[in-house]
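Input sequence (121 aa), recorded before submission:
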Amino acid sequence: MGIILRTRAATLSLGLKEGEISGPVKSSSGFHIIKADKRTEKTLENNREDVKNAYLAQHAKPYDEVLNNLIKNGDVKVQDKQFTDLFKVQEEPKQDKDKEDDAKADTGDKKEDKASGEKKE
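Predicted structure, token format:
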């Protein structure tokens, strides 16, 4: 299994013929020597499912997040009271809120006391 190199090393590897070995190539992670073992051509038709799965893995959002956004931004009117709970926005997990609070503390966000004008952490 090979390593995917980006930048100049990747471009160089595309120029090698099968079995050919490159000279030393410098990258941000060190020096590499590239050997072109076998060339394969991938087409969209042959790899449609792989491309779809890779895209979804990178861009998919959690179900709860999507549902909450639809409920918040949609025009949902529940007429049957037994289903009202199904369309309430779910609270965010506590751990995410804690991380958000920690991030604010790290950046030095300060709140101003309106009565005294003092800035508080």
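Checked by second reader. The CA atoms of residues 25 and 32 lie 5 Å apart.
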